[in-house]
Amino acid sequence: MITKGIKELCALAEAEIETVTAKQAIKLADDDGVQLVDIRDIRELWREGAVPGAMHAPRGMLEFWID
Q: Is the pLDDT of residue 36 over 80?
């Protein structure tokens, strides 16, 4: 049974994560305690390349994949 809607799931996720700038992410990329998540569409990854070491989870699917 579904108990939480997408807005509540997003609010809960946003309370748990930290959004950083690209410059901050580059500095954090080598930290073993940090997991980068690339939320771009797969076509963007094909065109522009992937972020080394990042997990790919398209933004439109992020909460669904986590759940």
A: yes
Identify whether the C-beta of residue 58 lies closer than 8 Å to the C-beta of residue 66: no
3-state secondary structure of 1: coil
Instruction: Report d(CA 45, CA 52) in Å as an integer.
Output: 11
Task: Give Rg (Cα) of the chain.
Answer: 14
Cα 54 to Cα 24, 26, 31, distances in angstroms: 14, 11, 12
Stated pTM of the model: 0.63
d(CA 12, CA 54): 22
Which pLDDT score, from 0 to 100, does residue 45 have? 93
